[in-house]
Amino acid sequence: MSWHQTLTQTLAEMESLTNPGTENELKKLTELGDKLVHLTGQIPALPQEEKDEVRPHLPKLGERIQLVISALDAAKSQTAASMQGLRNRAQAAAAYQTKR
User: Fold this and answer.
1) For residue 34, how many other CB atoms are within 10 A of its CB?
2) Interatomic CA distance for residues 7 and 3, integer angstroms
3) Side-chain half-sphere CA neighbours of 66 within 13 A
4) Is the Cβ–Cβ distance between 78 and 21 less than 8 Å?
5) Count of alpha carbons within 13 Å of 90, Cβ hemisphere only?
């Protein structure tokens, strides 16, 4: 599989994760994010032929990468808010128990 195909497949997998608030999907997104970082780091070392193949697709790939990054940021915020909500409920339950 070419570099471009691998990158496109990785982005498609990331985009298909619709509820990144679940633990499994967050883990998968992290793995795919690591793969994405690895792939983008390979660009300078690509053979010229492959660079020429990828060059016309870079603007669209860049847009897709930005969308995935935005989704990751949203998932991170959602997860942080969920964790804060759990913390608040736990504190309220503990306070209620100590009042009894």
Assistant:
1) 10
2) 6
3) 6
4) yes
5) 6
Interacting residues of 13 by C-beta distance below 8 A, sequence separation 6+: 28, 32
And the tokens for 69? Answer: 């990054």
Distance CA 40, CA 56 (A): 16
Q: State residue 18 phi and psi, 5-degree precision.
A: -90, -20
Burial class (CB in 10 A: 0-12, 13-18, 19+), 3: middle
Task: Give pLDDT tens digits for 52-94.
Answer: 888 888 888 888 888 877 877 777 777 777 777 778 888 887 7
In tens, the pLDDT along 18-28 reads 666 677 877 88
Q: Which amino acid is at 45?
A: A
Q: What tokens were used for 13? A: 């997998």
Measured on CA atoms in the order 31, 37, 43, 45, is the torsion positive or negative? negative
pTM here? 0.59
